[in-house]
Amino acid sequence: MSFAPSDQAGDLRRLVEAQRREVRQNGGAGPRTVAVLSGKGGVGKSNLALALSCALADQGKRVVLLDADLGMANIDILCGISARFNLSHVVDGSRRLDDVLVPLEERLDILPGGAGLKEMADLDDAELAGVIDALGLLEDRADIVVLDTGAGIHKGVLAFALAADTTVLVTTPEPTSVRDAYGVIKSIGGVAEERELLLVVNMAASEREAREVADRIVMAAKQFLGRAPVYLGCVLRDETVGRAVRLRRSFYRLFPAAPAGACVRRLVDGLLGLWGGHREPSFAPKGFKAFFLRLSRAFFMEK
User: Fold this and answer.
1) Are strands 32-38 and 144-151 parallel, antiparallel or unpaired?
2) Domain ranges, residue 277
């Protein structure tokens, strides 16, 4: 049976409300979802998502890294893995989640997104229900799900920011990157007030430069948008990052003592400190099934 878009939206709203009731009853149990995104490509977003995942695993967290770039998935290349299956096989029902997850190291699994995977807005009702049910199995498999999203300011990327518990926005000191980061904040600001929005300055020449860039973004967002990200920290420009890419490994694993690796450890310390200190219910992790329900609603907002 097929439904009109308005019926789909109504059904999704009811599903989301049911999930919210369940979350309230369970005290917000479930993995925390963290979307890593950027306003433009070439800022090191995927490298950072992989490094953060490795560092979180080192802290004893069970992590799943989902390559959520629906058009140019590349986490498998950065990890040096060759995945036989990807998220599209879960979508079409040909494979189970366990068939698709790729163990990378202790406490860290990769969930390949699949280059060319259709956007959520194109899924029919049966596919959508199947994806939500299948990926809901991650509730018991992970403490944190890191989502490496696409780059840019379009619905497919912004939907992940609207759905995740925490959004990490990555920029560099380059003026075009700063401009596009501000564009992301403007696009999601009013809609995602209950989501945690953090800022990381990547490829900075110094901590001072990174702080100056962050201050400009935060001040402009406060003045003109009424909401600004929290500056989480920076990753210094480091030639070991490029070397690790050529070797198809995480720079955090290959060169842990290098400046970039040390920066990632500080970022993770900051993340865990923030998450441990929150008392507001709106910032509690809602679980991965709730994430996908919110993601579905975000995709259908414009239908």
Assistant:
1) parallel
2) 5-300
